[in-house]
């Protein structure tokens, strides 16, 4: 009895397995487990890979805009245009010599007056020839005796105010006067000549010092120096 029951159970089990094999696997028979018209669900792992783009399929082809690297959106921004820098304006200077000053004191006073205006200054002394007067005379006779004889003749012709030079390069010369004004000197000479004597006229000079102040002044203050220094002239000189 037990064996019969076991046999029946085995047969029933085989029937159940056969029915499951025939009815339980839908894909075997091409049937869908879903209702008609309802889209079939797939796992993400079962989705097919997207087709490769034409750019990636062709070697060496340029990448499309969509496939461009992120560097296109994060490209280096253009360098800012530098602001032009205006160069500083250069100051031009004028170099002048002021003078001549009569004394060193006058020159130092002028230098003090221009100390805040001149960029550079230097003082200098020069020797110059200055006219001291005009001399009217009669050339000497070469000896003291001849000069005395000439003097007596002048007195006889009523030509007074003379004397005989007794020393120096002009010894034994008859001096008829030294004049500051050349007009007065010419008048005296003509008077003696009209009396019959060969009077002559010459300029007397001497070497005297002159004091100058060389200055370098910016052009914007060139005209202002005259309001600070008076009584002297100016001329251009080399810059230093």
Automatic annotation (TrEMBL):
Domain SPOR: 132-199
Low complexity composition-biased segments: 52-76
GO MF annotations in UniProt: peptidoglycan binding
Record-annotated membrane-spanning stretches: none
Compositional bias segments (type: Pro residues): 77-87
Record Pfam families: SPOR
Region entry Disordered, spans: 48-92
Protein name: Sporulation protein
Organism from which the protein derives: Dyella jiangningensis
């Amino acid at each position: 009895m037990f064996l019969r029951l076991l046999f029946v159970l085995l047969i029933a089990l085989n029937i159940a397995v056969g029915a499951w094999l025939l009815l339980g696997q839908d894909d075997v028979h091409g049937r869908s487990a879903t209702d008609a018209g309802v889209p079939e669900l797939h796992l993400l792992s079962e989705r097919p890979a997207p087709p490769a783009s034409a750019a990636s399929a062709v070697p060496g082809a340029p990448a499309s805009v969509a496939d461009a690297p992120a560097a296109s959106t994060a490209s280096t921004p253009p360098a800012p245009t530098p602001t032009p820098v205006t160069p500083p304006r250069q100051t031009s200077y004028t170099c002048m010599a002021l003078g001549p000053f009569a004394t060193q004191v006058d020159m130092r006073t002028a230098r003090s007056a221009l100390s805040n205006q001149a960029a550079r200054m230097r003082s200098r002394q020069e020797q110059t020839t200055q006219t001291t007067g005009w001399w009217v005379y009669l050339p000497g006779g070469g000896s003291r005796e001849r000069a005395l004889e000439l003097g007596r003749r002048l007195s006889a012709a009523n030509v007074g105010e003379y004397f005989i030079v007794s020393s120096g390069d002009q010894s034994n010369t008859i001096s008829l006067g030294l004049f500051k004004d050349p007009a007065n000197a010419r008048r005296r000479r003509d008077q003696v000549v009209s009396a019959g004597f060969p009077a002559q006229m010459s300029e007397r000079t001497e070497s005297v010092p002159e004091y100058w102040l060389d200055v370098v002044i910016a052009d914007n203050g060139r005209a202002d120096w005259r309001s600070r220094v008076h009584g002297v002239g100016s001329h251009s000189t080399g810059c230093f």
